[in-house]
């Protein structure tokens, strides 16, 4: 089910606020999304990002775990699971999730993009390095 135009507007606005490092405003936009659309994958993925931004890794962990169980082909869910696991000290889970992120991304020929994101993510320092990419 696709998001309605108004829900998509609020999702885009929330993403914009997060890009501007304004998580409170992003949360307000997410609250404007209709109840039925709050379980949309894109909404849940943005919630993962928001919860990491406000240091609620346990919430990201719960959402990302559910997403990776139900939709293992989504690289972004594995990425957020890796980040949240790292923050929570679940190092084995973080390493495994990051590998699964790359495998999922490789199916769409997007592995280099996700590898770069892993390099850029402070949460994932020590799990991935430029030497592994051949940079």
Walk me through what this model shows.
Helix content is 70%, strand content 0%. The protein is mainly α and 135 residues long. It has one domain (5-133): Serine Threonine Protein Phosphatase 5, Tetratricopeptide repeat (Alpha Horseshoe). α1 runs parallel beside α3 (41-53), α5 (75-87) runs antiparallel to α6 and α6 (91-106) packs antiparallel against α7 (111-120). The protein is globular and about 40 Å long. The mean pLDDT is 94.
What's the structural blueprint in terms of helices and strands?
Blueprint: H1 5-19, H2 23-31, H3 41-53, H4 57-70, H5 75-87, H6 91-106, H7 111-120, H8 130-133
Helix pairs in contact: 1-2, 1-3, 2-3, 3-4, 3-5, 4-5, 5-6, 6-7
Strand count, sense and barrel status of the largest sheet are: none
As a percent range, the share of strand residues is: under 5%
CATH superfamily: Tetratricopeptide repeat domain
Query: How many distinct beta strands?
Result: 0
> What is the radius of gyration computed over CA atoms, rounded to a whole number of angstroms?
15 Å
Return the domain count. 1
Can you give the mean pLDDT? 94
How is this structure best summarized?
The chain is mainly α and 135 residues long. The protein is built from 8 helices and no strands. It has one domain (5-133): Serine Threonine Protein Phosphatase 5, Tetratricopeptide repeat (Alpha Horseshoe).
């Amino acid at each position: 089910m696709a998001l309605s135009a108004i829900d998509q507007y609020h999702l885009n606005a929330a993403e914009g606020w997060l890009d501007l490092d304004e998580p409170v405003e992003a949360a307000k936009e997410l609250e404007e999304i209709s109840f039925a659309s709050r379980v949309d994958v894109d909404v849940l993925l943005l919630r993962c990002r928001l919860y990491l931004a406000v240091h609620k890794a346990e919430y990201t962990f719960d959402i990302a775990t559910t997403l990776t169980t139900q939709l293992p082909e989504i690289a972004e869910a594995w990425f957020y699971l890796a980040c949240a696991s790292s923050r929570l000290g679940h190092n084995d889970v973080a390493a495994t999730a990051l590998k699964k992120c790359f495998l999922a991304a490789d199916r769409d020929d997007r592995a280099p993009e996700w590898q770069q994101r892993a390099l850029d993510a402070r949460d994932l320092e020590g799990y991935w390095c430029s030497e592994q990419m051949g940079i």
